[in-house]
C-alpha cells in the first residue's frame, strides 16, 4: 500500500483522546537490559551509536568475509582460477581485499563504467565480461579509457560474445579502431538465457574469428548454470551431467579449430554452484561474488558453511510502546530511518516486515519484550549485494565489533 493511501485508511482515523496515546517514546528513556539484539548485534549497536554517522549505513564484517573468501577459494582449488565478480563486490578497496586474500587477478565485470574503473585500479587484472555488451558500450570503453601503460585491453579484456551477429559487430569495431579484441564465447548450458545453443552455431563463430586473426582472438568459453541452484546437486546429478556434456561439446569445437582449451579461459559456475565442481576438471575458471558477503538470496545448499557478512544498520527515529496503527496487537512500533531496500530484517530477531513501504521512514513492529530506544539501530540483511551496496555511500568495515575503514563504492556512470 502506498503511504498516501494508507494515511487515508480507517487505521489512521482516531479520536483526539486516543491520539494522545500515540506519543512516541522519549529519546531520553532509560536503556533497558533486553534490547532484542543478541550479543553480536548489541555490540554493533553500541559501536554505531558511539562512532556511526547517524544515518543508514552498509557494514561488512571482515572476519566473516575472510572466512567466506577462504571457503570459496578452497572449493575452487589450486588447479583452477577463482574469478571475483565485480557487480557483487562493487568497490575498489573491497575487490582489492578479496583478490589479495584469494591470490587472484581474475575479475568478472558486468558494467562498462566498472570495466573502466577496473582498468585503472587493477592494472594486472584479467577482466572477463559477464554478459554480452552492446558494441557501443565496448566502443565507449575504448574511447574513454585514460592512458595506462600498465593495462593492455588487447591482452587483459575478454568480451563475451553470444552470437555470430554480435561477433561481426565487434569485428567491425576492431577494424574501425585498428585494434585486436579478445572474445570469449557464451554457450547455453541449460539456462536458456542466450548464448550459442548448438555446436554448429559455435562452429560458424569460430570460423569467423579464425578468418580475422588480426582483429579477433578467441580466449575461451563461458557457461552459466544457476538453474542448478535449488537442486542440492553434486557431480553425479543428471542436470549437472547435462551441463558438463554441453561444455565438453563446446570444448571439442575449440579443438577442431586448432585451439588449445587447456590454455584458455573455460569459465563457469557462480556462488550458488561453485562447490559442485570441486572434483571436476572440465572448467578451469570459476566465478563467485555474492558468496563473499552472503546476502539472503544466497542462503542456499552449497553455501551453508558461509557466514552472513553484510548488514544494513539504520537508526530508530520514533518508538511507540503500543502499536497505534493496529491496536489489537501487543507489540511495539518503531520508525526507522529510510527503508524499502532489497533487504530483510535480521535483528531484533522477531521483527516483522514493515507495515507499509517507505523510503523515508518505515514502520517496524517488534514483540513487546524488545526494548530498543530511539537512536538505537536495527539491522537488515540485503537480499542481494550488487545494487543494494551502491545505495549507502562508503561501505563501513567492522573488525572485532569496531568500525575501522571506509570503502568507497563504484559510480554507476562514468
Largest sheet features: 8 strands, mixed
CATH level 1 class label of the largest domain: Alpha Beta
Give helix and strand order, one letter per element, not per position: HHHEHEHEHEHHEHEHEHEEEEEEEEE
Number of strands: 16
Cα end-to-end separation: 36 Å
Number of helices: 11
The CATH architecture of the largest domain would be Alpha-Beta Barrel
Looking at this protein, list some descriptive labels.
414 residues, alpha/beta, Lyase, Ornithine Decarboxylase, Chain A, domain 1, TIM Barrel, eight-stranded mixed beta sheet, 16 strands, disordered N terminus
How would you describe what is shown here?
By secondary structure, the chain is an alpha/beta fold. The chain folds into 2 domains: 3-9 and 23-60 and 307-407, D-serine dehydratase-like domain (Lyase, Ornithine Decarboxylase, Chain A, domain 1), CATH 2.40.37.20; 105-292, Alanine racemase (TIM Barrel, Alpha-Beta Barrel), CATH 3.20.20. The protein has 11 helices and 16 strands. It has helices spanning 3-8, 16-19, 39-51, 62-76, 92-102, 112-121, 135-144, 153-156, 164-177, 199-210, 238-256, and strands at 57-61, 81-85, 106-109, 126-129, 157-161, 181-186, 216-223, 265-268, 285-288, 310-320, 331-337, 343-347, 361-367, 377-382, 395-399, 402-407. β15 and β16 (402-407) form a beta hairpin.
Map the helices and strands.
Elements: H1 3-8, H2 16-19, H3 39-51, E1 57-61, H4 62-76, E2 81-85, H5 92-102, E3 106-109, H6 112-121, E4 126-129, H7 135-144, H8 153-156, E5 157-161, H9 164-177, E6 181-186, H10 199-210, E7 216-223, H11 238-256, E8 265-268, E9 285-288, E10 310-320, E11 331-337, E12 343-347, E13 361-367, E14 377-382, E15 395-399, E16 402-407
Parallel strand pairs: 1-15, 2-3, 2-9, 3-4, 4-5, 5-6, 6-7, 7-8, 8-9
Antiparallel strand pairs: 1-10, 10-11, 10-14, 11-13, 12-14, 15-16
Helix pairs in contact: 6-7, 9-10, 10-11
Amino acid at each position: 500500500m502506498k503511504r498516501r493511501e494508507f494515511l487515508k485508511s480507517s487505521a489512521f482515523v482516531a479520536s483526539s483522546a486516543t491520539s494522545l496515546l500515540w506519543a512516541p517514546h522519549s529519546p531520553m528513556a532509560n536503556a533497558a537490559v533486553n534490547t532484542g539484539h543478541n550479543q553480536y548485534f548489541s555490540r554493533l549497536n553500541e559501536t554505531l551509536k558511539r562512532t556511526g554517522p547517524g544515518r543508514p549505513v552498509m557494514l561488512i564484517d571482515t572476519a566473516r568475509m575472510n572466512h567466506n573468501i577462504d571457503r570459496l577459494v578452497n572449493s575452487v582449488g589450486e588447479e583452477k582460477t577463482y574469478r571475483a565478480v565485480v557487480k557483487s563486490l562493487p568497490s575498489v578497496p573491497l575487490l582489492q581485499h578479496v583478490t589479495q586474500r584469494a591470490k587472484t587477478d581474475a575479475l568478472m565485470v558486468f558494467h562498462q563504467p566498472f570495466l573502466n574503473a577496473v582498468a585503472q585500479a587493477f592494472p594486472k587484472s584479467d577482466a572477463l565480461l559477464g554478459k554480452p555488451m552492446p558494441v557501443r558500450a565496448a566502443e565507449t570503453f575504448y574511447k574513454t579509457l585514460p592512458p595506462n601503460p600498465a593495462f593492455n585491453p588487447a591482452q587483459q579484456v575478454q568480451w563475451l560474445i553470444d552470437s555470430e551477429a554480435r561477433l561481426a559487430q565487434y569485428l567491425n569495431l576492431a577494424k574501425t579502431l585498428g585494434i585486436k579484441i579478445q572474445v570469449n564465447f557464451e554457450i547455453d548450458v541449460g539456462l536458456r538465457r542466450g548464448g550459442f545453443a548448438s555446436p554448429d552455431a559455435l562452429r560458424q563463430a569460430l570460423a569467423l574469428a579464425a578468418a580475422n586473426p588480426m582483429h579477433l582472438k578467441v580466449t575461451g568459453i563461458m557457461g552459466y548454470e544457476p538453474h542448478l541452484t535449488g537442486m542440492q546437486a553434486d557431480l553425479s546429478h543428471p542436470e549437472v551431467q547435462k551441463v558438463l556434456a554441453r561444455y565438453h561439446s563446446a570444448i571439442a569445437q575449440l579443438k577442431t579449430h586448432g585451439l588449445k582449451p587447456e590454455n584458455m579461459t573455460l569459465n563457469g559456475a557462480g556462488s550458488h554452484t561453485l562447490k559442485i565442481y570441486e572434483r571436476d576438471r572440465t572448467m578451469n575458471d570459476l566465478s563467485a561474488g555474492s558468496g563473499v558477503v552472503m546476502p539472503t538470496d544466497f542462503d542456499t545448499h552449497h553455501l551453508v558453511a558461509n557466514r552472513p557478512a553484510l548488514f544494513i544498520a539504520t537508526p530508530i527515529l520514533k518508538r511507540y510502546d503500543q502499536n497505534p496503527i493496529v491496536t489489537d496487537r501487543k507489540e511495539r512500533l518503531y520508525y526507522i530511518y529510510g527503508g524499502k531496500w532489497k533487504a530483510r530484517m535480521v535483528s531484533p530477531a522477531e521483527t516483522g516486515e514493515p507495515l507499509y513501504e517507505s523510503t523515508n521512514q518505515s514502520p517496524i513492529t517488534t514483540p513487546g519484550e524488545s526494548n530498543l530506544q530511539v537512536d538505537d539501530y536495527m539491522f537488515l540483511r540485503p537480499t542481494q549485494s550488487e545494487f543494494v551496496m551502491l545505495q549507502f555511500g562508503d561501505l563501513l568495515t567492522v573488525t572485532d565489533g569496531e568500525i575501522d575503514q571506509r570503502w568507497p563504492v563504484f559510480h554507476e556512470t562514468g
